[in-house]
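User: I'm putting together a teaching handout on how sequence relates to shape, and I'd like one worked example. Could you take MoxR-like ATPase from Lutispora thermophila DSM 19022, show the sequence you're using, and then write out its predicted structure as tokens right after it?

Assistant: Happy to. First the sequence, then the structure tokens directly below it.
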Amino acid sequence: MSIEEKDIREAWETVKNIEGEVGKAIIGQKEVIRQVIMGLLSGGHILLEGAPGLGKTQLVKTLSKVLDLSFSRIQFTPDLMPADVIGTNIMVKDEEGHNKFEFHNGPVFSHLVLADEINRATPKTQSALLEAMQEATVTAFKTSYKLPSPFMVMATQNPIEMEGTYPLPEAQLDRFLFKIDVKFPNLSELKDIVTLTTSSVEADVKKAADGEKILAIREIAKAIPIAQPVLTYALKAVMYTHPENVDSPDIAKKYIRFGASPRAAQSIVNSARVRALLEGRYNVSFDDIQYVAYPALRHRIFMNYEGIAEGMDVDVLIKEILHMAEEQI
């Protein structure tokens, strides 16, 4: 697909409108809003980590309203079963009065799915999302069902309450395009939040796009070129997360147990194309790679015991890795 100037301009204007409408209801989380939209336009899934009450649920609900997409919320608990997520067969009577089984869709059959406190559920239930996230299909009772498109899972986990949680396995973490840290608002933002949510006036959020428009922008983003030096920069950043790599920085060799998978490189390149589009540019820059590398890598780098004991910040590691990769271009 070839792209023209008007395609870039129209896509940029559409995304700006989406950000503006979502920003009416979500105060002070501009980067979170942008990265969530980038995830949707990249065809990926988002892992949000932050304390309760920071507007994560409201963000997904508002985004579904702005895009006129279906939305469902799944509260993950230890007693949640896979059938509660994907659906199950229910016995019904046909027109002749005979009993038959009919599949009833679970909440995963929505465009935007909020998996709230995903690390509260057992690994068996967590794995029910794996196929949906990777293949956009659900298999139940030997039958496959296609999920709506666009489809995105936004999962939340609480970094504070660790008792009674089941850490997400590496395979499932790797299914997420981004891990986004949701920060506490500053004083000015907190004032605006309280003013908005404690008054009788609700945010006037309007539709800014639809599913077809999102899919069209995805295709435009895929056509944005990436120069070989920029691509090499992205690939080296992923390679340098592996401590066994002789060229990796010393800090990576000291603190990392194992690094990012090839899927991380795909995530960086795909989302960097979207970021270039959001900036109104026709090609991917080094700055795009740097911007997306943090959310794309922070959940794919696993610390060793020394890194955990010293409380090493994964973002510090990523910064050093990017610096080393830039020097080697």
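A couple of points you could highlight for students: The two ends are 29 Å apart (CA to CA). Residues 221 and 273 are 6 Å apart (CA to CA).
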